[in-house]
Amino acid sequence: MVTIKQIADLCGVSRGTVDRVINERGNVKTETRDLVLNVIKKLEYRPNPAGKALSARKNNPVVGILIPAEGNPFFDDVIRGIKTAAEKYEIYGLNILFHTTRGYNIRAQLQILDELKNKINALIISPINDPLIINKINEFVDEGIFVVTLNNDADESHRHCYVGSNYVNGGETAGALLQMIAPPKANIGIIMGSSKILGHRQRLKGFEYSINKNNDFRIIDIQENDDDDICSYDKTREMIIRYPEINALFIVAAGVYGACRAVLSLNRQDNLTILAFDTVPTTIEMMKNHVIKAVIYQHPYRQGQRAMQIIFEYLVNGIDPDKTKHIMKNEIKILENL
Amino acid sequence: MVTIKQIADLCGVSRGTVDRVINERGNVKTETRDLVLNVIKKLEYRPNPAGKALSARKNNPVVGILIPAEGNPFFDDVIRGIKTAAEKYEIYGLNILFHTTRGYNIRAQLQILDELKNKINALIISPINDPLIINKINEFVDEGIFVVTLNNDADESHRHCYVGSNYVNGGETAGALLQMIAPPKANIGIIMGSSKILGHRQRLKGFEYSINKNNDFRIIDIQENDDDDICSYDKTREMIIRYPEINALFIVAAGVYGACRAVLSLNRQDNLTILAFDTVPTTIEMMKNHVIKAVIYQHPYRQGQRAMQIIFEYLVNGIDPDKTKHIMKNEIKILENL
DNA sequence: CTGAAAGCGCTTACAG
DNA sequence: CTGAAAGCGCTTACAG
């Protein structure tokens, strides 16, 4: 374990100077800088995060969090992950400012972002993919705020990291699974949230890619429910009544409960194979009732936890993230391994 | 953020005394002890792990690791998890002594444990469930060594933590999944490792529990392959030849490759539904060849990582683990979500 | 451009 | 039974 003190002694300079070199604070003669850098390299110096964390106590770093969680139980586990991690890191002096919005409202996101701007050192956001939001994220980055996108990426922006799932792969996995668990010849109805939402389009794309490889599987109809359970109920009912040959249902996003209730209202639960995403309580209920066969799961708790961890390591331990995309695997959950 | 200094000032004692109370080092008058404890409680004092980590640098803590990994590729990912974490923690002064054995050899485990005993502060072990090993673990615990069992528990011992999966649930999940992906009426052949190994027995139990709920599914035969691919090949061939009605194969532990090769040698891959555990390279190969339909996955990388993390937090940050059993979920993997 | 000193929160001898 | 001091590895004013 090499320390700054050792580097300083070996180079015949003070620890302050070594610190200036390591952290690129300037005000160092080129020659001494080169000397220090060489010794650092030769001794494979790595800073001790505990030392960093201790002196970072004076910074009182703050993380702003902005998530469209209201009315969307999917985010409950994400938030649990964030808050559990935040509690763990509180003792290091890391604090959070927690905000939620209802649905994907650009104006609401912008307003909260403006409020947060001069109060935070890092931001966790599940952004809307809109130029106004992208610009705002870039503003934050330009001011030295560390930005992590969570569950939904904004890769056109200059955000530092994304934590979330691979949506195309989620759809593809769902498609392949459905071919295993549905009857040999299946007519599929699809209920999606909104084609305006990137993740939903990507899941659909992956699903279609997978299904189209199989001549015995056909997609009969696709309807949008705007992530609303009542709308989902109506649209699903209409779809199943109109196309009674449908024997498999793929629910791309929210509105799972409404869709299942529609199936139940038509008493079709025993001859319809239903596949959905995420393990919100109403979905688990429908799995227990054997209405939903399986779901694709994207580790929501770990998503929240990981986002906080990345920021903690950056702000407190002074460690840069090792990659920009932190992708949680899509898992298959049935009742038994929930 | 309350610090020891603040507690000391408020109580009118020195920081040394507060430290003595917090860490129960004795040599404190009962009255001062009570006073300090009260203030600590009132102010909700939590020690700052960074401070602890820094002063722990002088301890040079060492973790012994003992895993029956030789010739068992399952452990490759577990070890990757351990080593990646160990590298991350090295800078804090935490070092490891890494040992493996071939198979479950009691004598070999005991010998390495004796070698390690006076060199380590913590132990990660995937123990054999034998009284000799249990006793040895208890010896370690009695000497103040922090013991974590990994992937296989020894809950009759005094080990501090277990990190691993729930084997009964793994079998149950496999059974439920098989009922979804096998033909409506299935005759099942089972290839297990050894009934001497607890985890294998537990998986079998969970599987049988799940299968026995279904009158259309029957278990035709159970053979043991001793986790050996050649043996697995022979036993599987014999089984399938003897019971040609078998149309589903459940492989409980290792020897997956041998079993699959047996199926291929009899050209039965297209009318046999094969289910196995874990994603070792040869298993993935057989999934790509569409010989294996699905596997149950137990997060091996995270198991290794978590074991190291628990020990790091204990030894370096001075944080006791929040629970004794750290169970990784059983996940279902198909080719698409590997 | 550089160094000496103090401080972050904890623990550890040492002295009494 | 208790306190003062030094140290773990880093950063931050401050002085020159």
UniProtKB/TrEMBL annotation, chains A, B:
Q: Which InterPro entries match?
A: HTH_LacI, Lambda_DNA-bd_dom_sf, Peripla_BP_I, SBP_2_dom
- Pfam families reported in the protein's UniProt record: LacI (PF00356), Peripla_BP_4 (PF13407)
| UniProt superkingdom | Bacteria
Transcription regulation found in the keyword field: yes
Keyword Lipid metabolism set for record = no
Q: Which UniProt keywords apply?
A: DNA-binding, Transcription, Transcription regulation
Q: What are the HTH lacI-type domain coordinates in residue numbering?
A: 2-56
Q: What is this protein called?
A: LacI family transcriptional regulator
Organism of origin is: Pectinatus haikarae
